[in-house]
Specification:
This protein is 81% helix and 0% strand. The protein is mainly α.
């Protein structure tokens, strides 16, 4: 990609990264206790998509000559937590499939032992819950350093870039709130 193009779009990529990171942090605070499997799947899918978007736009912002070592570390962090979110989602999908009435291929392959199927589904659920708690914890630990990085990035923007960042961030944050609403009872 052309370096000039990367410079022109840096503010917008930073804004998209930040809107996605902020919404992911809000979703991570929503506790899935008592949720149905389908609600948990939707929540996990939203986290996966937000972290994927944040990771992609963080990497695109890094194509600028103004990318820093701290930003590079943050891209790696986002890749790590995105992989964790994908693992949580995979475990929840396994649980949903095992619990579904239509798990005929698994039934044929593994046998129709309902007790063993229920135990396997429980292990998937517990594994997903544990991983989600770990993801929430590491995200909380990283949020302070993320805010410092965000201030540093915004402070290095030229006035026109800062204006573009502000407008883009507001638009992206509204888009993320619409696309990925907080679960009922989790808002404020």
């Amino acid at each position: 990609m052309d370096q000039g193009f990367s410079e022109v779009n840096r503010a917008v990529h930073l804004a998209r990264r930040d809107a996605c990171v902020e919404r992911a942090a809000e979703l991570l605070q929503a506790a899935p206790e008592g949720w149905t499997t389908s609600e948990r799947l939707a929540h996990g899918s939203a986290l996966d998509r937000l972290l994927d978007c944040a990771e992609r736009h963080a990497a695109l912002a890094m194509r600028s000559a103004r990318g820093t070592d701290t930003e590079r570390a943050f891209v790696r962090f986002l890749r790590l937590v995105h992989h964790n979110a994908q693992s949580v989602q995979a475990l929840m999908e396994n649980q949903a499939h095992i619990e579904s009435e239509d798990h005929s291929f698994l039934g044929r392959l593994l046998g129709e032992d309902r007790e063993q199927s229920a135990l396997s589904a429980l292990h998937c659920r517990r594994g997903a819950e544990d991983m989600l708690l770990g993801l929430r914890q590491i995200f909380q630990m990283a949020y302070g350093p993320y805010l410092a990085l965000q201030r540093e990035n915004r402070g290095a923007l030229r006035p026109e870039e800062a204006r573009r960042y502000g407008e883009a961030h507001a638009a992206f944050a509204a888009e993320m709130a619409d696309r990925f609403p907080l679960p009922v009872g989790a808002a404020d």
